[in-house]
Specification:
Shape: globular
Distance between the termini: 36 Å
Radius of gyration: 17 Å
Length: 208
Amino acid sequence: MKEQIIIREYKETDHKFLENMVREAWKYDRFCSEKISAKMAEVYLNSCLTNQTFIAVAEIDGIPAGVIMAKDNRAHKCPLSLRLKWLKSVAALFISGEGRKISKIFMRVQDIDKELLSACEKKYDGEIALFVIDKRYRGRGLGRQLFQKAVAYMKEQGILEFYLFTDTSCNYPFYEHVGMTRRCQKKQEIDVNGEKGDMTFFIYDSRC
């Protein structure tokens, strides 16, 4: 039987599914305990929800299989309810020493993203704030469908140019396949619990 694929708006019941996608995609369990990994995923997803003006969810046979979030930087206003939810998840993560320690790594990643954006010396009207596909459903064209939905939204808003952050832990060549340009990059050594490794962080951009 052919799978039923639907691209739809975000629903609150998607939250836990999306947390699990984020947790797997960014491999949080490699860095910390299961409990802290789950909290990290919750914090990151809640942070993305505060940083968007558009969400599209891909659903296969009733199960969320991917999500993309875009932001119109000119019109973005975060609802207080989302900000409070994010702050609550941050507080829950910071209760433990392990949570505080692991969060410093990802705060460093945020600093790198800011450095990349500054190096571009451009002001973008749009951003892809989150883009992730469940590993069980990759290779079925969901990513391209979601990406096209986000671009269509930005065109409707009159956004001329947008950007996104990615790195070598992700399928970054995808963005070149859909016509984006690698604008800046930075190589950085990451130290996780004494295990060091090099990663390269990128900023890609494109015109709508």
